[in-house]
Design brief:
Number of helices: 7
Largest sheet: 4 strands, mixed
Radius of gyration: 24 Å
Shape: globular
Strand content: 15-25%
Order of helices and strands: HEHHHEEEEEHHH
Number of strands: 6
Strand order of the largest sheet: 2-5-1-6
Length: 227
């Protein structure tokens, strides 16, 4: 009787250690998933995929970037950029609306600041992994067309990306805004011709391995102590 009770106590202790390990690994995974918390993206959704709507989307983009360039250029960190954008959503909508009307359209427009899912994307010679990112989003009309995006902070929207983002200033801006791991993730696939479907970190690999090991250990303990 005493031995059976002691065995159960040992199993509970070991399972507690396993649980602690799972919680620790899960915390690391969540930390990695927050890699985009120091970035704010700029996302413009066209009314439709018609050539006219797609062209209008780019015109709206240019007007908004021009209107916000001076003020955002003074921002020192992501928090300040967030405050500037939040305080200027009405202005951004007005700028976008004016450009839409200038092009003979009557689409509604909505500017918002929030978190959205993004696929893996290349911007110049920088790759941003898939994940949830904070973004300034402008929705034109039905917002059912192809979208355009860039990074509002660090201010990559104001850099000419046609020849790639290779200047040292841009790299330093990213380095100062991101952690070492985040910066590595952004630049790890610079030379890839096609974007990877998934950028899998060692943390995720450890997590997957841990799940398998936990199951094996629990089954083994259960068979040994017959509980």
């Amino acid at each position: 009787m005493y031995r059976k009770w002691a065995n159960k106590l040992v199993v509970c202790f070991l399972m507690g250690l396993v649980l602690i390990n799972v919680l620790y690994v899960n915390e690391e995974v969540e930390a990695l998933e927050r890699r985009g918390e120091n970035l704010i993206r700029f996302h413009v959704l066209a009314n439709s995929d018609s050539p006219e709507d797609q062209e209008l989307k780019l015109k709206v983009r240019d007007k908004v970037i021009d209107a916000m360039a001076e003020e955002l250029g003074k921002s020192k960190d992501v928090d300040q950029t967030r405050e500037i954008l939040a305080a200027n959503l009405e202005k951004i909508e007005e700028v976008a609306k004016a450009e839409i009307e200038r092009n003979g359209e009557s689409y509604g427009v909505r500017a918002s600041l929030g978190e959205h899912k993004f696929p893996t994307k290349r911007y110049g010679n920088v790759v941003f992994p898939a994940g949830v990112y904070e973004a300034l989003r402008i929705e034109i009309g039905k917002a059912e067309g192809q979208n355009w995006w860039c990074v509002m902070f660090p201010p990559l929207c104001f850099v000419d990306v046609k020849h790639g983002l290779t200047d040292e200033k841009t790299k330093q801006e990213l380095k100062s805004a991101l952690t070492e791991e985040e910066y590595y993730l952004v630049y790890s696939s610079v030379n890839e011709k096609e974007l990877p479907l998934q950028l899998k970190s060692k943390v995720f690999e450890i997590f997957e391995q841990s799940k398998g090991q936990i199951k094996v250990q629990v089954n083994r303990l259960a068979s040994i102590f017959e509980i």
